[in-house]
Amino acid sequence: MQSSHEWFKGFYTAYKEMNPQAYAIGEVYGAGSSVIKSYTGDQLDHVFNFEMSSGFVNSVNGGANSGVNSAFKFVFQDMPDFNYATFLTNHDQNRVMSVFNGNTGKAKAAASLLLTSPGTPYIYFGEEIGMTGKKPDEDIRVPMQWSDAENAGFTTGTPWRALNSDYETVNIAAQLNDPDSLLNHYRTLIQLRKEHSALLSGDAILVETGNSGVFALLRTSDNEKILIIVNLKDETISDYKLSLKENILTDGTFLPASLFGTLQAQPLEISGGQFTGYQPISELLPYQTYIFQLK
User: Fold this and answer.
1) Looking at the predicted structure, is the pLDDT value of residue 65 above 60?
2) What residue numbers bound the domain in which 252 lies?
3) Is the peptide bond before 280 cis (omega within 30 degrees of 0)?
4) Beta strands in 11-105, from DSSP E residues, in sequence order
5) At what angle do helices 104-116 and 50-62 cross, to 10 degrees?
6) Regarding beta strands 85-86 and 120-121, do their DSSP bridges make them parallel or antiparallel, or are they unpaired?
7) Structural contact between residues 186 and 96, judged by C-beta atoms closer than 8 angstroms
8) What is the CATH number of the domain that holds 225?
9) SS3 (DSSP) at 46
């Protein structure tokens, strides 16, 4: 009997012969980096990283960086090329906004983790506007909420499932021109990812924060360095200090330029390729994201 690995290898060879640019992504339920690497490269182009997904969602929901930091450590060990797919929740799981009990601040923080981290991010439809839904599966897959029109602007016919009751207020049209909306939070982060090589395909290094409620990541490419900071809590945090133990930066003074918002950060002094005890701004607002390009 042919094993699943052997079948996938034959499948991979077949579709690459037909079209070398064809792309297949697979789901191995619950898979983390150690499992993903056994499929990637000769059986599938990408596999969804459930370990990283859980890290994103659990860290935001619990207000502590332990989950996402742990997921990153497994990635560094097993898949340092970051050749996997990332997501928050999918078509078989309760929607992430339901997991967060409708908390938009949490939804924004989770989106920030997803879209500033390495890997190839996937967004489940409606996630970008905060659509809710819990099992059974049919209630996770209700029509997309485009507007407050009949049937949420999804169809002039009869949808296969009744729409969410909040579609008149939670929809694309309602959020499109609101600069503070969840939709525009996603749009801004996606645009930044497209514009900056460090965010799109750069390396990643965890930065120690001195506070479990703060997550920090340094993304690096040949031509830029970007520092991401996310407050995972529903409270202002001032008791934190950033430290980088790896010798990867050029000694000197860096002037952080804000890529997300207009806040001015303190200069960053690098010695021995590292920094310690750095506090770019005095206070991190609840669930706020800060992205600085180090120049």
Assistant:
1) yes
2) 202-294
3) no
4) 25-26, 46-47, 85-86
5) 140
6) parallel
7) no
8) 2.60.40.1180
9) strand
Using 50, 70 and 90 to split pLDDT, how confident is the model at 29? confident
Integer Cα distance of 292 and 256 in angstroms: 5
Using a pLDDT cut of 90, give the percent of the chain over it. Answer: 85
Using alpha carbons, select from 74, 75, 54, 53 the residue that is nearest to residue 123: 53
Statement to judge: residues 147 and 248 lie in one domain: no
Q: Do 112 and 61 reside in the same domain of the chain? A: yes
User: Which segments within 44-193 are labelled E, that is strand?
Assistant: 46-47, 85-86, 120-121
Give tens-digit pLDDT for 72-89. Answer: 999 999 999 999 999 999
Token pair recorded at residue 114: 């997803």
- 244-283 pLDDT, tens per residue? 998 999 999 999 999 998 889 999 999 999 999 999 999 9
The tally of CA atoms less than 13 A away on the side-chain side of residue 84 is: 33
Rounded CA-CA distance 200/186 in Å is 15
Return the closest-CA partner of residue 41 out of 84, 4, 3: 84
Are 246 and 266 members of one domain? yes
- Two tokens, residue 13: 């060879």
Domain limit, last residue, from 175, 195, 215 = 195
Q: Cα separations (Å) of 88 from 7, 72, 242, 244?
A: 29, 15, 26, 27
CATH of the domain at 74: 3.20.20.80
Instruction: Give the residue from 143, 166, 195 where a domain finishes.
Output: 195
Mean of the pLDDT values across residues 229-235?
A: 98
